[in-house]
Amino acid sequence: MTSTVETVSTMAEAARAVAQGATFLAGGTIVMRDVNAGEAAPRIVRTIDPSLNDIRISGDSVVLGAGVTMAQVLANRDLEFLHPAARMIGGPQVRNMGTVGGNLFAPHPYGDFAVALLALGARAVMAGQSGGRPLDDLMRDRSRSPALVAAIECPRPRAGSFGFLKVSRVKPKGVSVLSVAALLPREGGRIRGPRVAWGAMGPGPMRGASAERLLDGQELSAATIDRVVQAAAEGLSPPTDAIATDWYRREVAGVHLKRLLEQMERG
Amino acid sequence: MIEFRKEFFADERDDDLNEVGKPTRRQDILGHVTGRSPFFDDHLFDGLLHMRCVRSPHHHARIRRVDTAEAEKMPGVVRVLTGKDVPTNLNTLLSLLDFGIDDEPILSTAKVAYRGEPVAAVIAATEAQARAAVKAVRVDWEVLPHVLDVEEAIKPGAPTVCEVYPDNKFIYHGKYDHQKLRFGDVEAAFASADHIVEGRYQMSPIEQAPIETCGAIAAPEQNDRYVCYTSTQALFFSLGTAAKVLQTPSSRLHFIGGTVGGGFGGKVDSIHEPLAVLGAMLTGRPCKYAWDRGEEMQVGAPRGAERWYIKDAVARDGRITARKFIGYFDSGAYTRLSSYAIIKGVGHLPGPYTIPNVYADVYCVYTNRTPATAMRGFGITGVDFAIENHMDKVAETVGVNPIELRILNSYRDGDMKAHRREAKNCALVECCQVVAEKGGVTLSPDARAATSLTGGGGERAQIPNFTATDEHGRVEGFDTGSYAQKASAAATAPQPPRTLPASQQPTSRPVQPPASHQPAIPPTPAAQPAQPAPPQKPAASRSGAMRFSSLSGFRRR
Amino acid sequence: MALHRGRGFAAINYPIGMNLGGDPSQALVHSNPDGKFTVALSAIDLGQGMKSVTRQIAAETLGVPVEDVYVDTADSDTGPHDMGSFASRGTHRMGNAVIQASQEARSVMLEAAAEELEVDAADLVTDGRGNIHVKGAPSRSITTMAASQAAQFKQGRTIAGRGIFLIPLSEVDPQTGEMTPVSCFAHAAMLVEVEVDDETGEVAVLDMQSAYEVGRALNPKLVEQQLRGGAWMGMSHAIWETTEPYYPSRDHGPEDFNAYVMPGPGDLAPHHISVLERPAPDGPYGGKGPGEMCANPVLPAVVNAVYDAVGVRVDDLPVTPEKVLRGLKANGGAKPRKAL
Amino acid sequence: MAKKPVHFSHNGVERAAFADDGQNLLEFLRRGAGDLSPKYGCGQGTCGACTVMIDGETQLSCLVLAESIDGKSIRTAAGLASDQLDPLQVAFMDHFAAQCGYCTPGMLVSARALLERNPKPTREEVMEAISGNLCRCTGYEPIISAILAVAEGRAQA
Hints:
Number of domains of chain D: 2
CATH class of the largest domain in chain A: Alpha Beta
Shape of chain D: globular
Helix content of chain D: 25-40%
Number of strands of chain D: 5
Order of helices and strands of chain D: EEHEEEHHHH
CATH topology of the largest domain in chain D: Ubiquitin-like (UB roll)
CATH topology of the largest domain in chain A: Uridine Diphospho-n-acetylenolpyruvylglucosamine Reductase, domain 3
Number of helices of chain D: 5
Radius of gyration of chain A: 18 Å
Oligomer: heterotetramer
Number of domains of chain A: 3
Structural class of chain A: alpha+beta
CATH architecture of the largest domain in chain A: 2-Layer Sandwich
Structural class of chain D: alpha+beta
Number of strands of chain A: 14
Largest sheet of chain A: 5 strands, antiparallel
CATH class of the largest domain in chain D: Alpha Beta
């Protein structure tokens, strides 16, 4: 199927087209690849709406336009907590192209930035709708987005409470064996309401419920970490692909979560 | 991080030359850094058409019907080719050198034997249109059982991958279903060895992965000729193949290449040139046929997998007295170049060592996967991985330093090699010594004093008095002949070759050693019982007519 | 977690060219009236430097500066037959053909010069800088340009030469495998140091120490390109690459460079190369062909190093983290050997 | 098929051309603008051979919709040399940093973009900058050396 591309001036128009079944083209790293392969939808829409690239920083949260690129994230000091994840997306060219919104829909093994956002408890603002919708909802079935994502609202984590790790076969740029992000808010030394998210450990970014359960209310001691590591892969359904088998991903998930937690503990 | 150790072999070299030995800049470097080097796809043509193939989604299937009607009506589509459009729709690459029987269709019509095998080619105005039309070609498949493992493929009852070789093994010299190497008597040496060391090694299939994918652009030229810009690694292989497949005099073909974005062996197969030229012939317009990256990786022929079993007899001091190989090359669905790689590989055994008794049975095995072809180190890399991994096991078994072990067994000038030619110009010992020195590995005085120029010859120059030979794997149905002249023999073969039943196989001596000696080596493949007659093999191209090969002159086909 | 270091060694030889079909290559060399030479081939430069090495060989043989030689390849209308660029045959086979063609062209050039200088051609030598002079008498000289112009416009001589390399077709004995496979061999030895992560099975290559014997290094920088790039490829074959990660299953075959993994710039190991040069008696100026064999010793050396580091021997390539980890689990953990 | 007009600056020269619907920038530059220096290696964004600079940023031209560069400035390897070669080009020649030459144009564009935003990169920064450009021939080391030589002022311009 050959594709037709429409360019519209506003997000609202783009949202209407998406509602009618069009595919939204942003950075191009996913959709243009499909266009080249003859696998894209017949109707593609893009917008030159500048709001897509807005970055708004407030005291306790940030709002990233869905068209903000990884490079723009990396260029912004207020977004330092997102740099470890943004830095691990693709090579320099892909980071200049790939967007925050696109990464939410990047198929396995991509989507590591979304893993970070998921752990941070970010919400997606849909075009033409007020209020955000938790990424957890959106990630449940990424193939059927209910509407066009206009922006991401992301709480800013307290210093030292958020960490991200991506494991690749190729350095410095490679796709995920897995990625893992952890948000560990503390109250009096104890972890309260932790959020752990995994990449490449399921069909898309997934919460690590078992790790969260074992971390909640605990101090980040060696004993806690040991318990978490043992159960890390519970409830996850990693795929087998050219990079690794499901067995391998399960085997090393705990090892890498441990390394992330220890790294966060060291600060 | 590079040094030239001029002190070695200095008296064999005259270092006083004008141009040779100088670090002169590459002739092509200015073009490379300015982006002006003309790769095949850097030749622009107005009205260029794009060809893409319809490919099998199955490992093995009969083609009941190919329906191109809908595709032909798609926007931009100029023509859809199927096998009937290809003048000689059966080829084997080395037929230009009279080696092997034509076994591979250009566009398959009867069946497919690997996932990705082409059955039709769409020619359209844009690549996107060609891709869209490819999806509109309807193929009615009858899926057949498939086999993917080399040792499964040669078991009785395995599905026949390629009808030309019904037992899934290439036939060498019109006589044997494998290539033999026999030097001395390995079984006698095993019987008296201090140690037996065995191993099984699996070399992986590998993509050549040039950054430029493989392709060609052909266009009508003046004087009823066709120009073809190509990424080929072998200009006359590609030209000769196109002439043969298109039944056209080679004088009508003008091939231009030579500036290629990496090859590593993956651009020898001459897949694109015949179809690009055919497209130009049938449409009268310039036509490009190139792989995308996905095709390059999964449809383009990889370095084939190899499985090796090695068994050594080793003396207490680390000297290897016998080495036996059983090797299986995974050729994939068709022969391409694997049959020859085995010849080259067998001439390389037992590696750079002087071993008085050597045995090898190496099989070119057909499986339902992408045909294999050349890659950097073709015929050698896989077995060297096996040998040198094995040497490490030998070193551990006898408790000898691994570098020392290599020097101890290293071939020297004047030694007799297993293929019965004298070793000359050797330098393995010196390489080992230099690395030991750099790595701080202490060698014994003997190993330090060793040289490639000394210690060889004499008794080591002798061909063994007795070499055990055998007739296992004997096939009937081919005329015997040299490996280099077999196409003519094949032309007269009335039936596909068959392996003789075991009871009829002549053997000059038992080749199966006591089982206790070689648990890791699979039994010498037993002769297979007769199978139902395979489908009649395509015979269209094997008329008796003389044709000219640009590579090897006139010969009968 | 523990990281374990180990070293592995391998040594190989490598056959140059092939015996199939006599392995022929042809070359044509001619000069224009300015004394500049064109070498017409149908050989392929895939990056290995075919154009450059034949250019240097032609210049050396002709006795002219390399700048005065241009290698034109590959056009089937003008370049004579060549088997192709594979089997490490290019430098050796085509180099020999270019020498032969250049020798013939040189002899005509010297005859033209001799006629102008009124001396015997046998007494003439070239200085490699564009001059031809009487041996021992540099003042009695003529430029290659003047000689070429005289040949073209005055003497009616064609400064041109033809060359071919061909070996006798070798039979292979079906019963014993007796054959003449190739004409000469290159050699290599390699010591690789690796580091293995015993919790993840990941292998990092830390260092490579090599010795490569390549015949004469016809252009040391081109040789280095092959050895360095080839060793990288060998390391890639050893640990990263395959088209069929679960061979013999065909599932999960990579279709892009994200799934087809190869070591990136962050995976490189220092590679300390020593080049040895034992000239091949039948090679062009003793050259062999380093292009293929450079990768080969790395594969087994890596496997042997991993075994040395943790006691896990991976007999099927590539040495993925999964295979190492499975081996570690089967052995009950790392069993460092440190035998080298 | 719809054609869309595109005005853009191409290596400093103002140009106008028509892009096909869905056409990527790589094809547009090569067949539409006759700039053959960006190369097709994958069409998937995984090899970097098609790298160009768009308003000073490296992007993968195979994944850029051609019409989206309307009003933008494109630089390619073909535009690196003006009266004289770019120092990176000279360094690539001197360091034998190209073999087959197919990845070279994209590699040079990535290197040029690096040095423009970071004239004194570390080795790690160089490796990061070229990590989206695959080379199958060299093993990267000569490429890294060439770029560092320019950064350290060791290369002759």
